[in-house]
Design goal:
364 residues, alpha/beta, Quinone Oxidoreductase, Chain A, domain 1, Rossmann fold, 2 domains, seven-stranded mixed β-sheet, six-stranded parallel β-sheet, 10 helices, 25% strand, globular, GroES-like_sf, oxidoreductase, ER, ADH-like_C, oxidoreductase activity, acting on NAD(P)H
């Protein structure tokens, strides 16, 4: 195997604050098993899933907004995206990009020395459409916050692109999440899509991918990030929480409603978003960083013939579709900053503060 015996890694040792993420310089390099490949990681992007898992925010005992800090009480039975316990120690990191340096028995040898992106979603390959048989790279198995990572060969795609490893590491989690949301909502060129949290990793991906489908995009973000979102293709950019959203929409697009809301924020503004949906409109959600508990008026839901879709596990084709979009230049990376892996605490702190547009990446 073309790898050393030990490596540098950031290891999550339990639920809690940043102190649970511990730097190691002598962590064992994983050995690829049958059908697996070993990747020398060139870059790995940060994402909310890792923060929410570390803090235990997914637990039903937590009703607060995502803060990245420790919570007073976390039910150990449901602290992950899938509502199951996590095994510690765990190396997190879903958005790994690197070079295949070894293959296990039965894995394709033509992947050796190829630069690859990792598909975050681990499948039950005997039944790949079964969402109950899915896991997540960096959650149900060790991920990419290390110098080396192993994964099933069916979870990687060779990538042919002039983009750097760091740029490529902004894509997998955010863009497959965004494409899954838009697919569930059947977004087309006939739609006007309102994107919350539009400057974040998923939000900026939603802007680009909705534009790719021909939709008109309205982004909600802080004013300092408006020019960034216009550069990504948003026709209209409004404050994060306009006091009168419908009036702001009427002024900006000539209509006080939209056909689709793509939401990753939730929280107290949620009802205002729903009120801005046209009759027969669609709401799709893949996050609740401002808080998971909302006031839901069922009359608005059924009297206006609305459709709501939750979106987490994406269909298998979406990752490969994304690789094609990248190679054809149909989407572009939004790389906010890079940090050495040993400065992971600083990187995740910056990610949590959300003063950036796009994504933050660590370099092993």
């Amino acid at each position: 195997m073309n790898a050393p015996a030990t490596m540098n890694a950031i290891v999550l040792e339990g639920h809690g604050g940043l102190d649970q993420l511990v730097w190691h310089e002598d962590w064992p390099v994983p050995v690829p098993g049958p059908g697996e490949v070993l990747i020398r990681v060139g870059a790995c992007g940060l994402n909310n899933t890792d923060i929410n898992t570390r803090s235990g925010w997914y637990s039903k005992t937590v009703s607060d907004a995502t803060t990245g800090g420790a919570y007073d009480e976390v039910d150990e039975s449901d602290p992950t995206w899938g509502g199951r316990p996590i095994t510690f120690p765990r190396i997190q990191g879903a958005d790994a990009v690197g070079v295949v340096v070894a293959v296990g028995n039965g894995a394709p040898e033509d992947l050796l020395q190829k630069r690859v992106m990792v598909d975050c979603w681990l499948r039950g390959w005997d039944d790949p459409f079964n969402r109950d048989k899915t896991g997540y790279f960096g959650s149900e198995c060790d991920g990419g916050y290390a110098q080396y990572a192993k994964v099933d060969a069916r979870n990687v795609a060779a990538i042919h692109s002039s983009l750097s490893d760091a740029e490529l590491a902004t894509f997998s989690c955010s863009y497959t999440t965004a494409e899954g949301m838009l697919s569930r909502a059947n977004v087309s060129g006939d739609d006007t899509v309102l994107v919350t949290g539009a400057s974040g990793g998923v939000g900026s991906a939603l802007v680009q991918l909705a534009k790719r489908r021909g939709a008109t995009v309205v982004g909600l973000a802080s004013p300092a990030k408006h020019d960034d979102l216009r550069a990504l293709g948003a026709e209209v950019v409004l404050e994060r929480t306009p006091g009168d959203l419908k009036a702001a929409l009427k002024t900006a697009i000539g209509n006080d409603t939209v056909s689709v809301v793509a939401d990753i924020v939730g929280g107290s503004y949620w009802g205002t978003l729903i009120d801005a949906l046209e009759r027969g409109g669609r709401y799709t959600c893949s996050g609740a960083i401002a808080g998971p508990m909302v006031d839901f008026d069922l009359r608005t839901f059924y009297l206006r013939d609305l459709t709501f879709t939750g979106s987490t596990v994406v269909e298998p084709h979406i990752f490969n579709d994304l690789v094609g979009y990248i190679e054809r230049g149909e989407v572009r990376p939004v790389l906010a900053a890079t940090y050495p892996l040993e400065e992971f605490h600083a990187a995740q702190t910056a990610f949590i503060e959300k003063r950036h547009t796009g994504n933050i990446v660590v370099l092993p």
